[in-house]
Amino acid sequence: MPWEFDPGHSIVEFSAKHMGIAILKGRFFKSEVIVHIDDDDITQSTLEATIDPASVNVFHERATELFKSEAHLDVARYPEITFKSRRIEPRGDNYAIIGDLSLHGVTREVAWDATYNGEANDHFGRTKRGFSAYTTVNLPDYGISGSSRAGEGGDEHVRVELQVELIKREEGEAVARRGGPGPRH
Q1: How many other CB atoms sit within 10 Å of the CB of residue 103?
Q2: Which of 8, 59, 131, 151 could tie 184 with a disulfide, CB 3.0–4.6 Å?
Q3: How many CB atoms sit inside 10 A of residue 91's CB?
C-alpha cells in the first residue's frame, strides 16, 4: 500500500549550542518525505526527504535571517537539503537509516537513529504510521562554520530530528496536498 507523508503532523527540527551557553532550537516548515515501506522486510524500505532551507525559523527574526544568509545555509545558492537512504539496518528494537545527506552543496553519508512509533487510526478512520529519527550533523563537514562566538565546543554540531506521520492511501485514492507553516489537525 502507498504511504503518503502527512506534513501537518510531521516536524523537522534541529538544536545546537548557542554561544556555548544555551540551546538554540529551530524548525524547517516546508519539507517532503517519500517512504516506501516493505512490510515483509523493513530493511528493504526506502526514505527520501527534501527540505526547503528558506523555510527555517529559529523564532527570532534577526537570527532566522542570519541562518538563511550566505554565512550559514545560503538558501539563495543552495535551495534544497536532501536525504536519500541507501540501506536500513536493525539496531536492537530500533533501526539505523543510512544514506546520503546533501547540504550546502556537499553530500556525505549519515546514519539516522530511527524508531517505529506504531500504527493507529485517526478520527477520520485513516490508518497512520509514525516514526522518529535523529542524527547529528557536523557543520564544517558541509562547509558551514559554527558561530565565531560559540566558545569551546562551539555550535558546530547540530542535532536534527524528524517526527514523521504517514497516511495509508488506497490505490487510486485522491491525494490532498496541504502547505503552510505549523501542524494542522
Answers
A1: 24
A2: 8
A3: 12
Beta bridge partners of 103: 106
Q: What pLDDT was estimated at residue 110? A: 97
Average of pLDDT values for 167-177? 63
- 3-state SS class at 13: strand
Greatest mean pLDDT among 66-70, 111-115, 156-160, 180-184:
111-115
By residue count, the chain amounts to 185
Contact of 121 with 127, CB cutoff 8 Å: yes
CA–CA separation, 43 and 76 (whole Å): 36
Dihedral pair phi/psi, residue 52, rounded to 5°: -90, 105
Are the CB atoms for 105 and 127 separated by under 8 Å? Answer: no
Nearest-CA neighbor of 115 among 99, 96, 87, 98? 96
Confidence band of 17 (pLDDT split at 50, 70, 90): confident
Which pLDDT score, from 0 to 100, does residue 146 have?
60
Q: Which domains does the chain have, with CATH numbers?
A: 3-168 (2.40.128.110)
